[in-house]
Specification:
alpha/beta; nine-stranded mixed β-sheet; Cathepsin B, Chain A; 25 strands; hydrolase; Cytidine Deaminase, domain 2; Papain-like_cys_pep_sf; 3 domains; 24% helix; Ufm1-specific protease 2; 15 helices
Length: 641
């Protein structure tokens, strides 16, 4: 009898092939769930020195289903031994990935490994067939002794059960919580998750960083008794700050929410038990992420109020275990699912929403044989007269700075809010670049001030490069094209009375066939994409726009692409990175170009020796770049990498 055909998620297969190049010979656990009388492999966890696996970070229902032998020669007996841990299927799978990236499969059948077959499941098809159920218990519901009914005896009784899973299940079955969505109580048994999500999907705002068909059903639980026993392993010791669990379920098959919550809560407690490394750390927090490279959501438990090095190592291990590059952050606070954790980066300091990626509907320039390179990732459009500011005529550089800062937020480089115009002015006064009278004034800022603010607020350092004339922008066209191709961050151009943001460049055969995609902070009008496009708030421009402003300073301010694991905590810790760590994990720089305008452009740099004072950057021809770190004086543990 031949083994059953199984399926593998498209992104999982791609990652296995990528791991051959990025890691080389290794083994990995394969994780999946039951699907169409067999299994669907959706994830992997590479063996590492920390002995960390992604198993308990996976949503409930995702279990170990097999082993991948990547570029190696593991013996059949070793493979069979590893497969003994598989319980979800009677036909565990083995994937052999060659050094060339080809994938062959075998299954364990009657104690022997035999050749098997698999089919690749499209990522969109996977997200259309399944959804994630996120169970959340608000913090005020979980505090010991803070009972809805005020019965302290119940709290003591509940705490005693915390080390006994059978008691936990019995307690929850006999006295189940109320399940609510957007404040409305729902039934917990025999519900069809897809139908329930369809009824309430308008309650959650979709994060544009995630696929449109990603469905997360957030369910709040309300208990008539203390639930500290669901937050810790044992009656005393370290505890989760809130209960926050995750399940993966079929959209169309009936489900029991209570049973799902019980199993996911038990997994969360077991995860916490493995994460405890120091009894002095009393609280941990759970965050949920959807790294696009892996194609499904996972939970991560971080310790709270610890040194940044601890959080950095945790994130580094996650990248290593999942086979992800360290070129960009994936597990910093602002990358957590925004509809669950706080506000989206689209919301500014005043609560006003800002449009995201307004250039998406701009048609390409009408040029023949043109190569177009655009900004990568997400940003917010900041322009005149937003957020209650009357900055028409003087606030363009402030707005460009805010747009650039928002890019850092969307890409996970900072969890800090975009600074307001007043906050920008206060920063410049704080570092003694401006007098006290500058706060609340209508004075312009230039690219040098932009550099100072990025350094002070996000620990971004930059250097200034001079371009002699507006026409000189044509000489920079391939530099800009390379920048957008390799790093993809916005470029601030400013000088004199003007500041703009470059979002892309189109290069034709001749220099005159060059167009710049300009985001104009001078726009005044409705916060509507159609109107913005009609009034050229974002559009392609020729070099003539720069020639008109010759004689002014031009600089470019660009955010960075990290060639290293992004440092930042679960909203915790702000210890600076040592020079040794920077050299080991980061390789990038920030560049500004000075003449008519200034472009803030990050470029890769192998010259990474030591930190340089940003206030000296104007005299530097090259400058080691300091990774962007959230610097919140009120919370010294709020960092990025």
């Amino acid at each position: 009898m031949a083994p059953r055909e199984f399926k593998i998620l498209q992104k999982c297969e791609s990652r296995l092939q990528d791991v051959v190049e990025s890691v080389g010979t290794c083994t990995a656990g394969l994780y999946g769930l039951k699907y169409e009388n067999s299994v669907l492999v959706i994830g992997l966890s590479i063996a590492n020195d920390a002995n960390f696996t992604i198993e308990l970070s996976n949503p409930y229902n995702v279990e170990l289903v097999g082993v991948a032998d990547i570029g190696g020669k593991i013996s059949e007996s070793e493979l069979c031994e590893k497969l003994k841990s598989v319980t979800i299927t009677d036909e565990p799978v083995v994937l052999n990935v060659s050094s060339a990236g080809s994938v062959e499969s075998r299954s364990l059948l009657n104690g022997k490994l035999v050749s098997s077959s698999f089919d690749v499941l499209d990522d969109d098809e996977f997200l259309s067939a399944f959804l994630f159920v996120n169970f959340v218990v608000p913090a005020d519901e979980t505090e010991t002794g803070q009972l809805v009914g005020g019965n302290a005896d119940l709290a003591e009784e509940a705490t005693e059960m915390s080390s006994c899973p059978d008691s936990i299940e019995g307690k929850l079955q006999s006295e189940p919580p109320a399940f609510k969505i957007s404040g409305s109580e729902i039934e917990s048994k025999n519900i069809v998750p897809g139908e329930l999500y369809g009824e309430h999907r308008e309650a959650w705002e979709r994060d544009p960083r995630h696929p449109e068909n990603l469905a997360i059903l957030t369910v709040e639980l309300e208990f008539p008794y203390d639930v500290t026993f669901l937050k810790r392993n044992g009656g005393q010791g370290p505890s989760l700050d809130v209960i926050n669990t995750l399940c993966l379920v079929s959209r169309d098959e009936p489900a029991n929410l209570l049973e799902l919550f019980i199993k996911s809560a038990e997994r969360s407690i077991e995860y916490l038990k493995k994460e405890i490394f120091n009894e002095e750390v009393l609280f941990y927090t759970t965050q949920i992420f959807f790294p696009s490279e892996i194609g499904y959501a996972i939970s991560v438990i971080f310790p709270k109020n610890v040194l940044e090095d601890v959080l950095f190592k945790k994130r580094l291990i996650l990248h290593e275990s999942l086979g992800l590059t360290t070129a960009a952050p994936k597990f910093t606070p602002s990358m957590a699912l925004s509809h669950v954790f706080g506000r989206s980066p689209a919301v500014s300091y005043s609560g006003e929403k800002h449009l995201v990626n307004v250039h998406a509907d701009v048609k390409p320039p009408k040029l023949r044989d043109v190569q177009i390179n655009l900004v990568r990732g997400f940003y917010n459009y900041f322009h005149y007269l937003q957020d209650g500011e009357n900055d028409d005529g003087w606030g363009c550089a402030y707005r460009s700075l805010q747009t650039i800062f928002s890019w850092f937020s969307w890409q996970g480089y900072t969890s800090l809010q975009v600074p307001s115009i007043r906050e920008i002015q206060e920063i410049l006064v704080k570092i003694k670049d401006k007098p006290e009278s500058f706060i609340g004034s209508k004075q312009w800022i230039g690219s040098q001030e932009l550099c100072y603010v990025l350094d002070e607020k996000a620990n971004v350092m930059c250097r200034i490069v001079h371009v002699p004339s507006g026409k000189g922008m044509l000489e920079e066209r391939f530099t800009l094209a390379s920048h957008f191709e390799e790093q993809g961050t916005p470029v601030m151009v400013g000088g004199g009375q003007y500041a703009y943001t470059i979002l892309g460049i189109a290069c034709g055969d001749s220099p005159n066939d060059t167009r710049f995609l300009i985001l104009d902070p001078h726009y005044v009008g409705p916060h509507d994409v159609k109107t913005i496009l009609r009034k050229n708030g974002v559009c392609w421009k020729s070099v003539d726009m720069f020639k008109k402003a010759e004689g002014h300073t031009r600089r470019t301010a660009q955010p960075v692409t990290a060639q290293g694991c992004h440092r930042g905590g679960a909203g915790l810790g702000d210890d600076r990175i040592s020079s040794a760590e920077k050299r080991q994990f980061f390789d990038y720089s920030m560049v500004t170009i000075d003449s008519f305008q200034s472009m803030l452009i990050p470029t890769s740099s192998s010259a990474f020796n030591s930190a340089v004072d940003v206030h000296q950057c104007k005299q530097q021809s090259t400058l080691p770049f300091c990774p962007p770190i959230g610097n919140n004086n009120n919370n010294p543990s709020e960092t990025l990498y």
